Amino acid sequence: MKKRGGFIMFVMTMTKRKLIRAVMFVLVLITGIAIGVFAILSSIDTGAENVKLPIYNVKRTDNKISITFDCAWGNSNTDKLISILAEADAKATFFVTGEFADKYADDIKKLSDAGHEIANHSDKHPHIKGMNVNDLIADTKECSRKIKMITGNAPTLYRAPYGEYDDKAVTTLFGMGMSVIQWNKDSIDWDKPTPETIIERTTKNISGGSILLFHNDLENTTQALPTVLKSLKEQGFELCTVSELLLEGDYTIDSNGTMMPKSKTTVNQIIYSDNHDANLAFEALAEKLSISDINALLSKDVSMETARKLASYLTQEQIAALKALPEESLYNGFIKLKEAVYARENAVPGSSTEPIIKD
């Protein structure tokens, strides 16, 4: 990039032949990878998007944040938590396991009746990374069944035990209609730090859309929570459930796990190709890729991670359509793609992009 007349100008200096060769190589590489990705979706019989990351936080224009608790073992402080949250006029989301529901149904009912959200934390608290898809589905459904029996409501949120997951698990869970929720602020209360340490970890550098993680059945959490809630309220944050925090309508999840509205820029109005599937492919890539991602495609050593990322964004039909494009059409579509992504990332009033291509 270089500056000209005060504006940022984008310069691409690669040859047309090199660009086409690089892109065709990547398309060939991702074809094989894509087979495995699409097999996952077929196994759960869903049309869900290939979402590869859970939601760690939400891009919002207000100061809403969510306090969450994982409940898998004991119930020593349920009444105290309800009292502390009520005093702060705060609603929280409790991720409970099916085993917890078996032992402490009354506690779950109390939490639900107090206006808190009850969400799915698996039935048996397994390690879902690498777990068989059918076993994951069965375990998840069983926990949801138990929660619905107690509260009357089927949960729509899921948090993976141990915070572990892989692409297959996340894709499966989203395909089941569950939003997979992580966190971006961790109290690490399970390690039994002092209440002062918990307060420090969960009240500093918080921003709207944050999701905070705590656990129930811990005395240090019970001691720290009143001060945590008071501090967050004094900073102007509104404490809501995770479902209230999530965005409505179309959204995307970026590479940091941030849930954000889908771009409404003119990127989607660009005609990249006369071929319908190829045009859809370019539109999908324009939404998902960054300039650094695109530059990675043009490197001499394309990584498997780059290929997997591309395969997760495109359907088999779209990949096939791109591969079938004449070289000139592929080249023109790719140039429009890079211009669109660059414009999106540098959307400053008065700025312009002028790609310079050497024939």
From TrEMBL:
Record-level GO cellular component terms: membrane
GO molecular function terms noted in the UniProt entry: hydrolase activity, acting on carbon-nitrogen (but not peptide) bonds
UniProt keyword terms in alphabetical order: Membrane, Transmembrane, Transmembrane helix
CDD domains (alphabetical): CE4_NodB_like_6s_7s
Domain NodB homology positions: 63-240
Gene Ontology BP annotations: carbohydrate metabolic process
InterPro entries per the UniProt record, alphabetical: Glyco_hydro/deAcase_b/a-brl, NODB_dom, Polysacc_deacetylase_ArnD
Bilayer-spanning residue ranges: 20-41
Record PANTHER family: GLYCOSYL TRANSFERASE-RELATED (PTHR10587), POLYSACCHARIDE DEACETYLASE PDAB-RELATED (PTHR10587:SF128)
Name listed for the protein in its UniProt record: Polysaccharide deacetylase
Lineage of source species: Bacteria, Bacillati, Bacillota, Clostridia, Eubacteriales
